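quick one: S-adenosylmethionine bound model?
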Amino acid sequence: MAIKARFAPYAECGPATLFRGDCLDLIASVPDGSVNLTVTSPPYNIGKEYEQSLPIEVYVRWCAEWLEEVHRVTADDGALWLNVGYCSMPDRGRAVPLAYLLWDKSPFHLIQEVVWHYGAGVSTRRAFSPRNEKFLWFVKSPDRYKFYLDRVRDPNVKYPNQRKNGRLRCNPLGKNPGDVWYIPKVTSGAGRASSERTPHPAQFPRAIVERIILACSDPGDTVLDPFIGSGTTAEAALLTDRNCTGFELRSDYLGIAAKRLRAAIRRKSAIDDQLYFADRK
Ligand SMILES: C[S@@+](CC[C@H](N)C(=O)[O-])C[C@H]1O[C@@H](n2cnc3c(N)ncnc32)[C@H](O)[C@@H]1O
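yep, here:
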C-alpha cells in the first residue's frame, strides 16, 4: 500500500488499516484505480462536534475536491456509496437535501439513490420529523460495475410458493430489497441504545454497510472510507473478508474504531461466526 510509505498507520487491525489526518492529504498517496469500493458518510455541515460549519458554496467545493480524489483512486469497475442527509441554508431552506447539492459534483456516474428509512429520529413541531437519509450509488463505468443481487435478496416474501405455469414466481433466494431500506438507526440513551453504539456522535449502522459491501464488491477487495469515524465501514469490511483503508481527523474516534475492530476480530475467529459469514459470500 503506497500510502504506508508516506504515513505511519494509526492502527492496523487485521485487514483494516486506519490513518490519522485530513482525508485530502492522505488520499493523495493512494494509487490511481486501487480501491474497489468506497462507502462513506462525510460531515453534513450541520455543526456537529467534529466539523466547522462552512458557507454552503465552500462546503460544496470541498466535497467536490475529495469526491474527485475518490473517483481517481476507484478501479474501473468500482463504486462509491455516499451517505448524505440534510443541511440548512440561511434564507433558502430549512432542510436542504445534500444529495441535490452533491450528486453531480464528481465525474462518477449515478446509478441510483437509495433511501435509508428509520424509525427513531428528531421530533419536530413545525415540520414532519425527519426519518430518512440517502445513499447515492455511483460507479466509475456504467457498463461495467459489480452488483451481486443474490447475496442481498430479502427473504421476507409474502407469497413464496406462488406459481405461474407451474414455475415459482419468486426467486427462492428472496426478493430484490428495493430502493427504500428500513434499517434502524444507531440509537443512544438509557434503555434504548443500540448494541453497536459507540461514543461517536454520528455512527451509521453496520447492517447498511454490510449490504452495500456484499452487493458491490468481492472478498479480498479494498474498501475505502475517507471519514471512518467509529470504524463502521472497517468493521463491516473485516467481517465480510474485504480489506479496508480508513481516514479520520480525530484520534479519539480512531481509538474507538481500533478497539471496535479488535473486538470484531476476536468475535470473527469464533467458529460459529465463521460459519455464519461463509454462507453469505
Ligand atoms: C459522519 S462522521 C462518520 C461516521 C462513521 N460513518 C461511523 O459510522 O462512525 C464523519 C467523520 O469524518 C471526520 N472528518 C471530518 N473532516 C475530516 C477530514 N477532513 N478528513 C478526515 N476525516 C474527517 C469526523 O471527525 C467524523 O468522525
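The domain at 2-278 is CATH 3.40.50.150 (Rossmann fold).
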